[in-house]
Fold this protein.
Amino acid sequence: MKKLTFRGGVHPFEGKDLTENAPVSVLEPGRELAFLLSQHIGAPAVPVVKKGDRVLTGQLLGEAGGFVSARVFSSVSGTVKGIEKRRNAKGALTDAVIVENDGLYESTPFEPLPGMEEYIRVFGLRPSGNWYGPQDLQGRDAQAVLDVVKPDEILKQMEPSQVLDRIRAAGLVGMGGAGFPTHVKLSPSDPEKIDYVLINGCECEPYVTCDQKLLCERPGELIAGLKAVLKLFGKVQGVFCIEDNKPDAIQILKKALRREENIFVAPCRTKYPEGAERSLIKAITYRDVNSKMLPADAGCIVVNVSSAYAIFEAVFLGKPDYERLMTVAGDAIATPGNYLVPNGMYYREIIQQAGGFTQTPEKLIAGGPMMGFAQADTEGVSTKTSSAITALCYDIISREPETQCINCGRCADACPARLVPSHLAHMVEKRRLDQFEENYGMECVNCGSCSWSCPARRPLAALISQGRQTLLAQKRKARK
């Protein structure tokens, strides 16, 4: 069978062998945690606590600041030290609730759905650090979980609005990086138009393997989470989209879904950026999505694997979103692996518990090396969208000098949006933003394939991103 894919793309060094076979470790939160009130696209959360308040694990710290916003919860118990500024992954200062951890981890009570008692009894439910791998609990395969949870029976007793309310109450956002509030994504203007729900398990970003771990170790929960989403749209197809460099995950999901009629696995060709929303929709459905459209306009809802797992915890267990699996990798990390990380931990503490640096890295990235954000220090904090920290001994790009464009066309061949990045970058350099827009510069998905493929080492993606941001700022100013 021909592997599903899209036009363009590149094949960077994967580096996944560093972490894909490592067991999941649970990190211990530090003495102080910082919970950013803006961990998502949209309005920042509004703080509902003040200095001196005592909070519990899973307690609400910030209420959603509007419809396109999301709640923020504490991952520890302790005392609020105040509302202070902290830098996000992009380097911008944003308000954060600072909590002093008391080490007790006292929790607010969760509200599991009726019927989940057996799951909690068999597999356990702790307020934090709830992780069991295959080496800890034999027989914990997808079918065993589904037989205990019985998601079809449980969801049959619920209205779609109840499912959506539990997702909204848990503060879920897209955990693949964009951070779009999940309850908004699952509330399209025309629900009848939706005919595909795609679970994005491609994880095409080099070094990152946290989603692969979930596919292999939590398939039953992922299927239950997908079924909760399908409940919102009636007769639609659910698709687990997995790149073919994860054969174990593909076989595990295929085996688990052999009795399902409307959920199947779609093996995709291993290629970057297969996991980008537009690329994935094109590969699976052959439908095009442009910058003026949402995936829902093409009849698709795309949900990241980590988001699907969070949906299971929110809907079936009533657990808020305050911790996630995260990959810490790169040749500068002493013990690369996948870690269960409480939101609000400082990067320095995460790296320290991953064994620290083998040497001072030349490049520290929040996220993966293709679409992540370079960090000046280790003072950043983990959020709902923190999928990885990548530390590299050598910054190859800075070591190779930029030269003149030779018009080879490699950037155009690599571009999944079918643009000519070298020309667009030249327009930005010359400040010809009108030409930039006329030549579809706003259609760039900022994947970085052009920069990776450029033999002249021109910062094409950075220049195009600069042009897009400038143009958007101009339009916002004109509207005001």
